[in-house]
Specification:
globular, 6-stranded mixed beta sheet, 5-stranded mixed β-barrel, single chain, 26% strand, alpha/beta
């Protein structure tokens, strides 16, 4: 049989067949000894082939083949330095949820995430969530950040599950697509999904006031079919995001505003650091490129993974 992975709990996978039946499946042992550097050889969204077996009147599946992926979102595994963690596969678009506070989302995190989705050619929409909780200063911060990312081609949406702000707009963007919701734990992913599809009743928790962080509620990625012809992948909250599989020379290509200027640099292999006649540095001096974006670029280039490694993938 062939089906799509809807849930992954580490050792068991829920797979939905083309006819709509769900099976609890395991993977054959050979997947674990192949040259797979990921901590999870199968991810939500993967299309797989499996055999059905019945033992003691219990029907389960054995996954033996993973179809080629159109794309995937991957990050460094926190505990295993040389391995990666595939968050989800075969995605049409990603919604990255951002909050100004409770908890704060730093631009370095946003930029690391965008570099990865840019590398795998996955459309990404930035959702500035919890707009109903912000004072005037917070709203101005949203406007400022939105201007940075809109200028380089990203759609930015202000949203609130409480007031219903832009919920219908999000539903229109999601229709007939497989979308992934991502962001820090506590940014309101589950609450927003519940506003989009009230019947799901995803679990939510309050913000921890002691640390101003979200208490994690989603412990594994899971895909849901929605009533208006869409599929959504809800993911565990991410505190840090380590970029993987990129050479220093190509990192700048995943910053759209850098890539657009690259041909004007004196050197074809310009890293935009100290090279003479660098179009990116010239644009930075003229405030045509955001300093926060350039700072994120340098952090990635220098392999500055301290922030993501001290803040684990919450489980």
């Amino acid at each position: 049989m062939t089906g799509t992975v809807y849930k992954s709990t580490g050792s068991w996978y829920t797979v939905k067949t083309e006819l709509g039946a769900f099976y609890d499946c395991r993977i054959k042992g050979k997947f674990r000894i192949k040259d797979i550097k990921s901590t999870n050889p199968i991810a939500v969204g993967d299309v797989v082939d499996f055999d059905v077996e019945v033992l003691d009147n219990v029907t389960t599946g054995i996954i033996h083949t993973i179809h080629d992926r159109e794309n995937y979102i991957v990050r460094k595994s926190v505990n295993l330095a040389r391995q990666t963690h595939i968050i989800a596969a075969n995605i049409d678009q990603v919604f990255l949820l951002i909050t100004i506070n409770n908890p704060p989302t730093l631009t370095s995190f946003i930029d690391r995430f965008l570099v990865t989705t840019q590398a795998y050619r996955i459309k990404t929409v930035l959702i500035f969530n919890k707009m109903d909780t912000y004072d005037e200063e917070n709203v101005m911060e949203v406007k400022y950040l939105s201007s940075i990312y809109r200028r380089i081609g990203y759609e930015c949406i202000e949203a609130s599950a409480v007031t219903g702000k832009n919920i219908e707009h999000l539903k229109a963007l999601m229709k007939d697509k497989t979308s992934m919701f991502a962001g820090h734990s506590g940014v309101g992913k589950s609450t927003l999904v519940n506003a989009i599809e009230p019947g799901l009743n995803l679990k939510t928790k309050e913000i921890s006031m002691q640390h101003m962080q979200g208490q994690h509620t989603t412990t594994f990625a899971e895909m849901f079919d929605l009533s208006f012809g869409a599929r959504i992948i809800d993911t565990p909250g991410i505190k840090g995001f380590g970029v993987v599989d990129m050479d220093r020379e190509e990192v700048g290509d995943y910053f759209p505003e850098f890539f657009a200027l690259k041909h004007n640099c004196r050197f074809n292999n310009c890293l935009h650091i100290e090279e003479p006649q660098c179009a990116v540095k010239e644009a930075l001096d003229k405030d045509e490129i955001s300093f926060s974006r350039y700072r994120s670029y340098l952090q990635i280039l220098e392999g500055d993974d301290e922030h993501y490694r001290t803040e684990e993938w919450v489980k």
